[in-house]
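I have a small job for you when you get a moment. Can you supply me with one protein entry, sequence and fold together? It will help me judge whether the discrete encoding reads sensibly. Write everything out right here, beneath this request:
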Amino acid sequence: MKNFVGWATSLFPLWVIIFSIWAFFEPDYWSSLSYLIIPLLSLAMFSMGLTLKIDNFIKIFKDFKIIFLGVSLQFLLMPFLGFTLVKIFSLEQLIAIGVILVGCAPGGTASNVICYLARGDVALSISLTICSTILAVFLMPTIFWIYTGSNIEIPFFQMIISIFKIVIIPVILGVFLNSINFIDLKKIKLCLPLIAVLSILFIITIIIASNSDQIFKHGPKIFLIVICHNLLGFFLGFFLSKKMKYSEKISRTIAIEIGMQNSGLATALAIKYFGTLSALAGAFFSIWHNISGPLIATYWKNKTK
């Protein structure tokens, strides 16, 4: 079993490419499964919880500087990168608004799964996601207004409910089961990387299928900007963390948390306040960071061996 799981997870980038092509050319079947995205994320988060104990979170919050660094980079670096890319590429106003809105968003929940696959600090990743999501209620509209002069309202209660359903409750259940020694989890834990890989793989496939028409119509320029935004977030998050003398494990975690945005929130807000054209950056970011994340996770996992 261990050898099979190792083989299957090591080929994650290949599965992503194959399923992405399948979703792009045969979108109808996969797009009909969009209702599975949240349950799949919750399953992945539950599997993350099975690898953790309460002490992991206590240790993180004792060194609050790490949380402060991650959240600061999230809300300072990514909006600035988005604004800079908008200026470099001279984007039309509505598309530019979408790019900046993605930059102002908190970390995405999928980052926690990618962090696990990359051999990062999962407890830190989850803590950063929760903190940035709560702070986004106040910081996201403020930073967005600074860069664009436009006002948006953040759906506070919907965000809190979502983070509870997708992240907090599944993680708590996993941590609880891992702490009470009620059942032997050794065999289950062997399968956890495969569960995480399959969850993210199906999420990527569904997202690509659901946006295949938009990719075809508006792809190249916006995709290039999204790729630059995401990769710069990864690189600078890792580089700055290393410069501040944090470990490889923590630097990976912060890089992933910075590079992977809650683009679903950005897309929803863009549609509500500015129209579908401004939502393209968020939709494309959802696709791309769910491809780049597994790729960088596989690279780091193999580097750790």
About this structure: The mean pLDDT is 83. The domain at 2-304 is CATH 1.20.1530.20 (Na+/H+ antiporter like fold). The CA atoms of residues 85 and 181 lie 50 Å apart.
